[in-house]
Amino acid sequence: MVPLWWYILLGVVLFVIGAAGVLLRRNILVVLMSLELLLNSVNINFIAFGRYYDDFRGQIFAIFVIAITAAEVAVALGILVALVRNKSTLKVDDVTIMKG
Amino acid sequence: MDQAFFLLFAAASVITALTVVLARNPVHSALALMACFLQISAVFILLEAPLLAVIQIFVYVGAIMVLFLFVIMMIDVREAVLQRFLPGGNLPALVLLVLLGVEMLVLVLWSDRFSVTEPVAMRGGDQIRQLSTTLFADYLLPFEAASVILLAALVGAIVLARKEQG
Lengths: 100, 166
What we know:
The complex is a heterodimer. Chain A has helices at residues 4-24, 28-52, 57-87. Chain A is mostly helical. In chain A, 54% of the residues are buried. Chain B folds into two domains: 1-84, NADH-ubiquinone/plastoquinone oxidoreductase chain 6, subunit NuoJ (Four Helix Bundle (Hemerythrin (Met), subunit A)); 126-166. Chain B is built from seven helices and no strands. In chain B, helix 1 packs antiparallel against helix 2 (26-46) and helix 2 (26-46) packs antiparallel against helix 3. The radius of gyration of chain B is 21 Å and the shape is globular. The relative contact order of chain B is 0.06. The model of chain B has no long low-confidence stretch (mean pLDDT 85). Chains A and B meet through helix 1, helix 2 and helix 3 of A and helix 1, helix 2, helix 3, helix 5 and helix 6 of B.
């Protein structure tokens, strides 16, 4: 049987990789994909804890996380298409219109 | 047996996740992310959550990645391929990441709370039936809220991506 901390470790590693993508990459598309990776690593943790403590709430929370992620991606890609149409850039650093 | 499968899927998912972050071309990132989601759904099956594994494949691999690939197709990524890769001037972020990773690893390995090996005895019966009963009985209000959020996101995405008239 796989011990619980293996799953937690996998979640940690994926979370750090995703955070690296969000913080270090400058391409908006790759930043969005890294966000997906972050949410997935959290899902692994939810389901692993739910399994090892025999509780359905882990899976239910994971379902809600997936639903909210789908909504987030749809809105984010809509904004991205509108941005590329108006400004024709894909770099995060070039989008500083709302900076004070 | 379980452990070997877990190690295989975990190694594959970590490698593909690294490819997502390190690949120069966003199309390669998207394909690697798709492979990573497949590995994660295999991990869900190891965790005896088959419903979540199927939802993962449907929603992430089927819907979200197709959305990403469509957007990549619509916009020009040739300029993005050429841009500088992992700018070195971002030292604070790098230090923060290393600190975060080391902290989480130390906490997980130190604590004895995570050393549960044998899961508590599985409740008998149809697991998916019990899951859906819980979802639609105890969590009905959050479920409805999630569906309203999805509808709002659908309308919002259409309005945002539409060409402005005049």
